[in-house]
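pipeline/complex-builder :: batch 7 item 3
reading input block
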Amino acid sequence: MFNDFEILETLSMFREQHLDVRTITMGINLLDCASDSSERACQRIYDKICRKAEHLVKTGEDISHEFGIPIINKRVSVTPISMVAASGDSTDYTMYARALDRAAETIGVNFIGGYSALVHKGFTDSDRRLIESIPEALSTTNLVCSSVNLATSRTGINMDAVRLMGTIIKDLAEKTAGQDAFGCAKLVVFANAPEDNPFMAGAFTGPGEPECVINVGVSGPGVVKTALESTRGQDLEHVAETIKRSAFKITRVGQLVAREASKRLGVPFGIIDLSLAPTPVVGDSIARILEEFGLETAGAWGTTAALAMLNDAVKKGGTMASSYVGGLSGAFIPVSEDEGMIAAVELGALSLEKLEAMTSVCSVGIDMVAIPGDVPATTISAIIADEMAIGTFNNKTTAVRIIPVPGKTVGDKVHYGGLLGSAPIMAVNPASSAAFIERGGRIPAPIHSMKN
Amino acid sequence: MSDSNKQTAVITVVGQDRVGIIARVATELAALSVNINDISQTILQDVFTMIMLVDYSTMPIDIKELASRMEALGDELGLAIRVQHSDIFKAMHRV
């Protein structure tokens, strides 16, 4: 039925190459929890999450044991809270964050995403309240993640929101200065945010999603790297084929788990996010894959080309393996979560500018990057603006999860631990962007968005 | 996934070769009413590798328990014994 080689290869992928299902994320629609009493809304939110996701963690653990597939995280993502809270009587939205936090603790998930707002065309009053509350909300809760969508290819870039988010990120950093600005690791800003992304911190359940859904994120950088080791010296066609085949196998694992979880929980299967997501553990690095392509270190010239090929091959191989693909689906380059990236930064081989170039051909963006605490809010906004432009004008998702660490500067390193790893502080071009950012307004949608 | 695959698993045994490995593992499985459908085994430079395709439909315990017991047996014999549902292999290696 199966040949020995296939069986031993599979075994090795799980045992030695860190193949795992990175997350099973249950998306829960909370629009029906809205109430003109915010207190009642929070209670409904708590109750609905606890009811829908009651068996999520146990089911994940059961599937993991029965199939012998490590399932690292079980998570929940919800409707952007600014939509749910809009009709409520409270102007202090932190109570919603606390309700989410309590629910997450009760059901035992390790993160809950969706303390979010979609402002790509402009702010609603509720959006503003939500965003202004983010520093307080994320510094006083443990498990809540937040995201704001600032741009889409169809609507352009909300530069008022870009300006605001620079200050919000600084505030949040100050409020969590005692933990090296850890709060900022739970906040992402997006262009073209997907509504079904299962990964944190950017997961939310968009308004187009159904009542409840299961989305799965797989991961296997170690598997891809090991496969590539056997292609040394061969031309790039072989490299592409090898990555595609590995991505197929990795994604099939996710598909299997997703189908099983969906069946047991009685919740429809949404999508597989076929992302290659690294962890700080040795052997689980995207940067080392890039080096396997033949680059001395990630960040050397050729990195963008290699990453483009990797990202594309992962998508091609993975798409065949799953009935529904969505989320971010590509290669992740979070600096603090990738041991090879950290090494490249510390060697001086990988700069913020090179990372920016890399974001144009892969999945996430400027992710888990620590910068000096004294970088002005307007510069942070300008970094965001650049990233939004790459996403908006190239019809892809980009994001920024940046951490200005108070009191730290280039040469320092911060340690978050676990999956969030540790981050060397990266240098930021000191030239000022203040006058540009202070203009505000909207950058109009690119002409190629006029598809009708 | 067809029903006939539902209760089949792949058991792999890897480690230093010694007398009685197949006997011990097979005895343990027989005691649990697990039927061995296929065995493939090789020894490469003293490393013993065995792959068994088993049917556990009449097993009185669940697969999680089987996996734990096999892992414990492996620890006792100085081998790595893993149990995985055959669906994984089908999913990963067949288009």
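note: Residues 8 and 55 of chain B are 4 Å apart (CA to CA).
queue -> next item
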